[in-house]
Structures are given as structure tokens and as C-alpha cells.
Specification:
By secondary structure, the protein is mainly α. Helix 1 runs antiparallel to helix 2. The longest helix has about 35 residues. The termini are far apart.
Length: about 80
């Protein structure tokens, strides 16, 4: 049975994903290695999605505690910067 790897923080997971993509794009690895990298990438992507969802939930809770009830979608066209 394969041991489960320790879950990385968001930034480390994104960095590892970038490295995996670079290796896959080079195309000089075997099919078996490509599949292993792809599988690792899927797991890292899930971890990133979980981290983002947890952060969004935390922001939602903080907004509710401060009296604001709902988050609004970001509209880059209305960004004043």
C-alpha cells in the first residue's frame, strides 16, 4: 500500500505543480513517469482547490462576523486601480 504524502501548503503545491508541468511539457520522460507526474498533479490540484475553498469559507465567516452578509463576485472592470 502506498504511503500518503504529507499535504503541502498552497504555495508549495502550486510551485510543485509548475515544476510538474514543465517536466511534462519537455516530453523527454517515459510514459510511466508521465503518468506518475500527472497523478501527482491531480492530487496537488485537489489540495489547492481544498485550500482555496477553506480560505473562501474563512473570509465568508469573517465577513459575517463583521456584519456583512454576502461576498460579491469580483468584477475586474470596476476595479479602481
Amino acid at each position: 500500500m502506498a504511503s500518503k504524502q504529507k499535504k503541502l501548503d498552497y504555495e508549495a503545491a502550486v510551485k510543485e505543480l509548475e515544476t510538474l508541468v514543465e517536466r511534462l511539457e519537455q516530453g523527454d520522460i517515459s510514459l510511466e513517469e508521465s503518468l506518475k507526474l500527472y497523478e501527482r498533479g491531480v492530487l496537488l490540484t485537489r489540495d489547492c482547490q481544498d485550500s482555496l475553498k477553506a480560505a473562501e469559507q474563512k473570509v465568508q465567516m469573517l465577513l459575517q462576523q463583521s456584519g456583512q452578509s454576502n461576498m460579491v463576485d469580483f468584477d475586474p472592470e470596476s476595479d479602481p486601480s
